[in-house]
Amino acid sequence: MGKHVIVGAGQVGGGLAETLAERGHEVTLVTRSGSGPERPGISRVAADAADVAVMRRVTEGADVLYNCMNPRYHRWPIDWPPVAASLLAAAESSGAVLVTLGCLYGYGPVDGPMTEDLPLAATGTKGRVRARMWEEMRAAHEAGRVRATEVRASDYYGPRSSDQSYLGPRLLEPLFAGKTGLVLSDPDIPHSYTYLPDVVRALAAAAEEERAWGRPWHVPTAPPFTIREYAVRVCEAAGLPAPRLRRLPSWALKAAGLGSPFLRELGETRYQFDRPYVLDSAASQAVLGFTPTPVEDAVKETVVWWRGRTGLGRAAVVSPA
Questions:
Q1: Please, where in the chain does CATH 3.90.25.10 lie?
Q2: Long-range contacts of 127-130 (CB under 8 A, 24+ apart)
Q3: What is the DSSP letter of 35?
Q4: Which of 27, 121, 235, 252 has the most CB atoms in a 10 Å sphere around its CB?
Q5: Is 256 within 8 Å of 263 (Cβ atoms)?
Q6: How far is CA 184 from CA 36, 123, 187, 200, in A?
Q7: SUPFAM superfamilies, per this entry (predicted)?
Q8: What does DSSP assign to residue 101?
Q9: The CATH classification of domain 3-154+194-218, taken from the options 3.90.1310.10, 3.40.50.40, 3.40.50.2300, 3.40.50.720
């Protein structure tokens, strides 16, 4: 078994740490506060990932270094560059494979399905930050300094989804309480959503598969669906009444952004929800070795997780058709 270092213990990093520990790996989880799952096989370290000297010590003898960190939206231009440089330096000194959790922002607005060979043509601040991170990793890989790959996902859903998720607690809590769900965009536009357990599987697979190194990959992701379709599936699986949804008016979203940096930053990526947004993961499925979890199964697992988390909506779960 190997030594795996993970930076970030959020909705992806925490799940990845548990998965790798269950497989018998030695896992070191790095966060500023030293937080993360408490279980055998996981060592938690409180450290600043931007500190090169510290990360070199932490990754000494490591086989894989995963970047699962996610700074606050409004701090991406400030926080990402020093962290990315630090982890690149740590991977180079340790020889660990650098696996970075990425997103689709670097592509910018596109027409048609997104594939990994699209140019990184983003004009927004956050998209340019992520594009630069990958370009620096790729250059280091091509120069023979590191072995690196980036695994890109669309918006998350499923167990562990955070409050920032469009299909997370913000939507689920009112549905399970029998109330109207408030959505931030048109609930009838198809959108690719990536199941969180599949994100974890893709990161672990990319670390082990040499063919994955040196280029980016999309997390295997199911065909796109709408927020309304998802809400209907959740309520059917949970035995709840048909969902009621209400879209937050654009003026109200802008007003809310005055007091919320996260909501204010959504304006830059608004284009993702104004028209169909489709991720193509055919290439990665062949290399990473698995297909996306069917939406029906993902919904059922999400309902079970949500009930265990909150105790809301105690009707029997209906098996998906």
A1: 157-192+223-278+293-310
A2: 127/268, 127/269, 129/76, 129/77, 129/80, 129/81, 130/80, 130/102, 130/103, 130/105, 130/106
A3: -
A4: 27
A5: yes
A6: 30, 23, 8, 27
A7: NAD(P)-binding Rossmann-fold domains (SSF51735)
A8: E
A9: 3.40.50.720
Q: Which CATH architecture has domain 157-192+223-278+293-310?
A: Alpha-Beta Complex (3.90)
Positions of CATH 3.40.50.720 in the chain: 3-154+194-218
DSSP 111-169: SS-B-TTS-----SHHHHHHHHHHHHHHHHHHTTS--EEEEE--EEESTT--TT-TTSH
- 122 sits in the region (left: phi over 0; alpha: psi -120 to 50; else beta) called beta
228, amino acid identity:
R
Can you give the pLDDT at residue 170? 87
Helix (H) or strand (E) holding 314: none
How many angstroms separate the first and last alpha carbons of the chain? Answer: 39
Model-level pTM greater than 0.70?
Answer: yes
Please give the residue that has the higher pLDDT: either 253 or 276: 276
